Amino acid sequence: MNLLIDQGNTRVKACLYDVDLRKLEAVSSIAALQAYLLAHNLPIDAIAIASVASVNESTQLITCLKRALPSARIYNVHYDAQILPSAYLEPSRLGVDRWLAMLAVKECRDAIVVDAGTAFTVDVLRAGQHLGGYILPGLALQRDALASQTAAVNFPKADVADLTIGRHTAACVGHGSLRALNALVSSVVDEFGGESTVATYLTGGDAATFMPHLKAEHRPLLVFEGLQLALSGYLTRGDQ
Questions:
Q1: Given 20, 45, 80, 97, the catalytic residue
Q2: Are 12 and 28 in contact (CB under 8 A)?
């Protein structure tokens, strides 16, 4: 059994992989992960970590894992041009979570990967290579920016029900953000071949909000799918 960990700036997410992926819903922090592992005697052989956290937080996670699972092999997964190359000018600055999401759909060859999270990212895969992408504030960040940086735009909560023209402030903010991000995805799809030739995949915490408006396949565990593929490669090669 493998333990897959996605360590972000504010949260820790984890999945177990045996014959399929199973997300550990109770895990959202290093402390919660440690408590879960100590409470369950899991036969974990290998651990794969994708981290965009600080060095201090990454070290805390490693310490936690060594304490809870002393016999498991630990692999820190990073960008690898031999597995999936990127046209990024500085590939080392490409977020490993974005790279893993693309790795998960690499066999598709031509694809667009949309991650609707705190940041809203759109990445283009062409002939098995990452061409580049876009990073924008997600729905919550756009809402919070308006709420904190303007005095007159007051609303209790943004309304992201649909794309129609807003008739009150919450709808103007929510529908506007939703429509703008949808328009970005649609324009990228059109630029790189249209819906008939390029596959679009959607993941991230806000994916359900976008699903009614995008012709995309919802893959909620896309980063973990890529993480398992990367780990399988390490284990096959015998990497330490």
A1: 97
A2: yes
Q: How far is CA 23 from the centre of its chain?
A: 14
pLDDT tens digit sequence for 151-195: 777 776 767 778 999 888 888 888 999 999 999 999 999 999 887
Q: Domains for the chain: give ranges and CATH numbers.
A: 2-79+226-237 (3.30.420.40), 106-218 (3.30.420.40)
Q: Would the annotation count 157 as a binding residue?
A: no
164 annotated to bind ligand:
no
Query: Residue 110 catalytic?
Result: no
CA–CA separation, 213 vs 208, rounded Å? Answer: 10
Task: Tell whether 182 is in a known binding site.
Answer: no
SS3 220: coil
Starting at the edge strand found earlier in the chain, the sheet holding 217-218 runs: 129-137, 119-126, 111-116, 199-203, 217-218
- Residue 8 annotated as lining a ligand binding site: yes
Handedness of CA 60, 65, 70, 75 (dihedral sign): negative
The tokens for 124 are 């283009």
The pTM of the whole model exceeds 0.85 = yes
Confidence of residue 96 (pLDDT cuts 50, 70, 90): very high
Taking each continuous run of H as one helix and of E as one strand, the counts in the chain are 7, 10
